[in-house]
């Protein structure tokens, strides 16, 4: 039996996906990257800001403008720069491309707010996210809220095994939370 007319809308999260195409010429070879970002809007009356995160970064290598097969490029790179050097280079390049994409995101980011405004945003969002108890500790685990807390209260981020705040299953998961008793300490 279909029950579409009984479905009730509860909430909508606005999350924008961005795909950045970047390049870097390193002389002997060129690197092109695709970096996918998620920009989740944090709704407040006072601010229009986004929690921007990297979903993934993919790097591709070129020599003289021609695409290289990854295994062949890896073999050549490690012959020139030593065994196991390829993965380190890929990790460093990926991180550089990710950082560049986030820093140049055109959406206003949480990280760009002054500290005072971050605190105002923190308490505004806290008033709207759910909390739960873990023993005597009250915690919140909303993802965007966690990212705001990381910027101003990094000492309050803890890892616990407990149910997600809005979970109906009651199952426990190992995850990061904001320990609200550690705020302003």
Q: Alpha-carbon distance between the termini?
A: 54 Å
Strand content: 25-35%
Shape: elongated
Quickly count the helices.
4
Q: Uncertain spans, ≥5 residues at pLDDT below 50?
A: none
Total number of strands: 8
Structural class: alpha+beta
Number of domains: 2
Structural account:
With 185 residues, this protein is an alpha+beta fold. The chain contains 4 helices and 8 strands. The chain folds into 2 domains: 15-111, no CATH class; 113-182, no CATH class. It is 29% helix and 34% strand. Strand 3 and strand 4 form a beta hairpin. Helix 3 (115-126) packs antiparallel against helix 4. The protein is elongated and about 55 Å long. The protein starts with 14 loop residues before the first strand and ends in a 6-residue tail after the last strand. The model has no long low-confidence stretch (mean pLDDT 91).
Secondary structure blueprint with pairings:
Layout: E1 15-25, E2 30-43, E3 48-63, E4 66-67, H1 70-81, H2 85-103, H3 115-126, E5 132-134, E6 137-140, H4 143-152, E7 157-162, E8 173-179
Antiparallel strand pairs: 1-2, 2-3, 3-4, 5-6, 6-8, 7-8
From the structure above, extract its key features.
alpha+beta; 2 domains; 4 helices
Could you provide a short overview of the structure?
With 185 residues, the chain is an alpha+beta fold. Helix content is 29%, strand content 34%.
């Amino acid at each position: 039996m279909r029950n579409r007319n009984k479905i009730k809308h509860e909430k909508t999260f606005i999350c924008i996906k961005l795909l950045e195409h970047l390049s870097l010429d390193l002389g002997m070879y060129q690197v092109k990257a695709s970096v996918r970002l998620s920009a989740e809007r944090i709704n407040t009356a006072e601010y229009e800001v986004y929690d921007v995160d990297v979903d993934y970064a993919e790097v591709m290598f070129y020599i003289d403008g021609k695409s290289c097969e990854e295994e062949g490029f890896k073999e050549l790179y490690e012959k020139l720069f030593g065994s196991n050097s390829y993965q380190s280079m890929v990790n460093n390049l990926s991180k550089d491309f990710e950082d560049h994409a986030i820093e140049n995101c055109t959406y206003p980011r949480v990280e760009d707010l002054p500290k005072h405004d971050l605190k105002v945003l923190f308490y505004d969002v806290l008033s709207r996210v759910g909390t739960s108890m873990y023993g005597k500790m009250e915690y919140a685990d909303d993802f965007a809220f966690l990212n705001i807390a990381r910027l101003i209260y990094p000492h309050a981020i803890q890892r616990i095994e407990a149910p997600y705040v809005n979970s109906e299953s009651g199952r426990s998961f190992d995850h990061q939370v904001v320990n609200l008793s550690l705020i302003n300490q």
